[in-house]
Amino acid sequence: MQRVPNCWGFINGTIRPICRPSVEQEDYYSGHKRVHCVKYQSVITPDGITVSELVAFEGRKHDAGMFRESGFYQQLETKARLPNGNNFVIYGDQAYGIRELLLCPFPGHGINEDQQNFNTSMSTLRVTVEWSFSKLVAEFAFLDFKKNQKLLLQNVEAMYKTATILTNCHSCLYGNQTSTFFNIEPVPLEIYLNVNNNN
């Protein structure tokens, strides 16, 4: 299988259904999923830790639009380029478009065998993002109960991000499907939380 040795993470968007809001309904309606929702964009590392979760976006927003508005690529340019000229990349689906620090599958049906093998190999790895989304909802099932996700009455975004941090903590303690798949243990909880045991 073809792999990318300098790939450090996988990016994808996910939707969380919400109760239909009384205002701005069209903004939060995803015609693709046919549900009112909030969208999040996350980067997952091979140890199953969510290392980046951008602000919540309206349900109708496309993944590429979220990525562009977030300014995340500008962060990559300052963090993923090393002084020796080496670069580290993340991998996403075709919605993001290929860039120097962001790879995606080769498009179209006219690709050659090597390109197809690359697409197949990386698709197998990218599914780990979905595992992380599934783990979060499994640990905090209330996030999946849309009738109680009321945008105007609750801080839906803060609840989701808090659940993400706590899910990361759980992964540090007990591992996760992604870390098992890549055979990489998550960092100890003390390091993740930046706790100094000497104090």
UniProtKB/TrEMBL annotation:
<dbReference type="Pfam" id="PF13359">
    <property type="entry name" value="DDE_Tnp_4"/>
</dbReference>
<dbReference type="GO" id="GO:0046872">
    <property type="term" value="F:metal ion binding"/>
</dbReference>
<keyword id="KW-0479">Metal-binding</keyword>
<dbReference type="InterPro" id="IPR027806">
    <property type="entry name" value="HARBI1_dom"/>
</dbReference>
<feature type="domain" description="DDE Tnp4">
    <location>
        <begin position="12"/>
        <end position="168"/>
    </location>
</feature>
<protein>
    <recommendedName>
        <fullName>DDE Tnp4 domain-containing protein</fullName>
    </recommendedName>
</protein>
